[in-house]
Amino acid sequence: MLQEIIKFEELNSQNWNEFEELIMKSQLSFPEILRDSSETYFNILSLSDSIGIIMLLNDVYIGNAIGFTESSDKIFLYNLSIEKEYQHNGYGYLLLEEFIHKARDLNYKVIVGNFRDTSLSLVRKFEGVEKEVLRNYYDSGEDFNYCEININKKVNKNEWTRFQENVWKEN
To answer: What predicted TM-score, i.e. pTM, was given to this entire model?
Structure first.
């Protein structure tokens, strides 16, 4: 059995070209009106307070998380994407967990973002709260949900271990 080796790499404007094509390909899962340009991503990653993470499985790209400051204690999770063939295996959870660690390191207290209905179970695993339903988001034909995840609280280690075991059993 092949051992899975998961790695996270920083994504920034300096290494954008290395991952640009893969990230732009992941945009195809969104309605056309919601797809962003390469320039938009590059500009976000050029911000000094942005967070960009690439997730690799056995050195193969499987996802990314990108965010930027919304206010002094809030970071906006602009993009969280796992490649289709790797979804529903716990990788989105691990990627969001890594994003939370980076956000905490930068003293953010809350992560906010607009999430598809299909991502709400992931948000809820981190005790995220749905604040508003964004009907027909930007005339995309899809509803999105504005959510907040409080990352300021500590998690009990035993509770964390039980939670991780349940995540892997579910997937």
So the answer is: 0.84
